[in-house]
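Project outcomes to date are best conveyed with an example. Our students and postdoctoral researchers have been running inverse folding experiments weekly, and each run begins with a structure described purely in tokens. The record below, which covers 239 residues, was selected by the lab manager from last quarter's runs and is presented without edits.
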């Protein structure tokens, strides 16, 4: 069954590849709107690629409106219960009999920010950061990070210059990485999150975040992201 519980406090969605394992795993960290059909579709995408994919509900089954501010506080502080939940999901996946023990983290929007910090803070073997906030003092925060593939949209007005800032930090730290900003693409261009927004929020999102722009770039970006992760999680490369 795809619905699981990692712990009493942490429900999750699990997508398992067809066939026999063991497989590498990914922990998927959702956008601000939580554990919705869009994010579960991303877990299914990774399972189809040959990954155990676990999507922990970092809101504990509660509505995103009640939880998003507290969760963002953990992100900005780079500590707190949310990171404990991410680590619990990582450990749970790594210890499964059908897992190779190699686990990556994949985050979108808010989850992208968590994935970036977790790349250095937790024992992941690779990280995919999709339009994630770059932490202050990134050169210090990201020291010792695992290989990172990061993707941004050039029309995302909430993260101006984020790709360049992250590239500079990872170059300085000599962290293996692939950072790319896609011209003409907006926030959430890799997913269908705009369909999950109420119409008034969608209209604001198109102006503020560039939501809905550049989705034609998504297939190219996904092949780049998945290729990067395949090399580090399936083959064990650290470069």
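After processing, the design step wrote out the following sequence:
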């Amino acid at each position: 069954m795809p619905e699981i519980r990692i712990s009493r406090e942490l429900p999750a969605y699990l997508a398992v590849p067809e066939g026999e394992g063991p497989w590498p795993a990914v922990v998927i960290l959702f956008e601000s709107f939580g554990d919705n059909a869009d994010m579960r579709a991303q877990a299914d995408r990774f399972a189809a690629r040959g990954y155990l994919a676990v999507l922990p509900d970092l809101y504990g089954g509660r509505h995103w409106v009640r939880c998003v501010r507290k969760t963002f506080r953990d992100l900005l502080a780079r500590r707190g219960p949310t990171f404990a939940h991410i680590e619990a999901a990582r450990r749970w996946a790594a210890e499964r009999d059908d897992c190779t023990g190699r686990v990556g983290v994949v985050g979108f929007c808010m989850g992208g920010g968590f994935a970036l910090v977790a790349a250095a803070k937790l024992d992941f073997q690779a990280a995919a950061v999709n339009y994630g906030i770059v932490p202050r003092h990134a050169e210090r925060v990201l020291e010792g990070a695992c290989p990172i593939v990061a993707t941004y949209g050039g029309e995302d007005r909430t993260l101006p210059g984020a790709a360049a800032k992250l590239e500079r930090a990872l170059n300085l730290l000599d962290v293996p990485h692939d950072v790319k900003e896609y011209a003409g693409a907006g926030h959430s261009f890799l997913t269908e999150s705009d369909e999950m927004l109420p119409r008034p929020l969608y209209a604001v999102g198109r102006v503020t975040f560039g939501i809905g722009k550049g989705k034609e770039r998504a297939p190219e970006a996904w092949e780049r992201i998945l290729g990067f992760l395949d090399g580090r999680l399936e083959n064990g490369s650290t470069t």
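Strands lie at 3-7, 10-15, 23-29, 52-56, 99-108, 126-130, 148-153, 177-182. The chain is about 40% helix and 20% strand. The training component of this project remains on track.
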